Amino acid sequence: MKKLQYLFLLLSLTALIASCTKDIVIPPLPYDSRPAIECMLKPGATMRLDLNRTIAYFDPTVNHADLFIRGANVSISSTLGTVVLSEDSVLNLFTCQWEYFYTSTDTVQQGITYDLLIATGGKTYTAQTTTNSRKVSILATDYTPIFNDIYGEHEGVIVDFKDIVGEENYYRYQMNRTIDSTVYIEGANTHSTCTNGLYFHVRELGRAVYKDRNQDGLDQRIVAEPAYKHKNGTVAYISVLTVDKNAGLFYDMLDRQKLATANPFVEPVFLTPLQFTDAIGVFGSYVASDSVYFEYPE
Question: pTM for the complete prediction?
Fold first, then answer.
C-alpha cells in the first residue's frame, strides 16, 4: 500500500512539474561587430592580411565570403617604402570554400620595422611589428600515444629544441604534410569534399603558445595533438615558429578563450583588444626553424 502511495505521489509531482513548464523566448541583444585582423610577416615571404568581421555566437553565417571585409584600404610601410595590399582569394581545398584576404607580391625583409594602416568603415586601425625574431634548431622529435591536457587524453607529437639565450621568446608548433579527401580532422566528421582523391598541402599550427619565462636558454619541449588523422608511415615536416611578443600574447589569449568555452559560466572576456582599438587581432612577425622529417610510428 505504501508503495502505491509513493508511486501516486511521484506521478502527481511529475504532472505538476510538467504543467508548470513554459517556453521563454529571449530576444538576442544588439551585437556590435568589429574587425578581426590577422597579419603575420615572415622574412622571405610575401605579405598577407586577413580582414573579417566578428559575428554573434548564434549568428548563422558560416561562409568566409560573407565574413570578409571588402573595399578596405590596407598598406604596410617601412623605411623601404609603402606597400598597398589588394584583395585576392584562394580555394581552401580542405573546407572547399574560397578564402579572401589582402596581399602583395612584395617580400618581407629581416630586421625591419613595419607599420600597418587599415582604413574601413570610417575608422582607421594601426599597429607595428619588427622582424627581428631568431630561429631555433630542433634537437629531436618523438611521438606519444597518450598525453593529457584540459581536453582529455590525446596522442601527441613531441618536439625538443633549445631556447634562445637572453631574450623573451614565444614559440608555436607547426607541421606541414599532404593529405587527400580520405583524411579527417581529429575528433570531427570533417574532410575534403572537392578534391576527389587528389593530394594537397595542409599546415597544422599548434593551439598553444610556449613561453621561455624562467627558462632562458634551457631545453624546451612542445607536445602537440595532431590536427588531422594519420596512419603508420604517414610523413610530415615539423618546424618551431619563433613569434614576436604581440603575436605571442594574442595567440595565448585566443587559446585561453578557447579553453573558456568549455565552461558555460565564462564569458568571452579574454578576447580583448591588444594592439588595436575597437578591433581584435594581431599584426606580428615570426621566423620558422629549419623543418625536420617526421614519420608517424602508428
Answer: 0.85
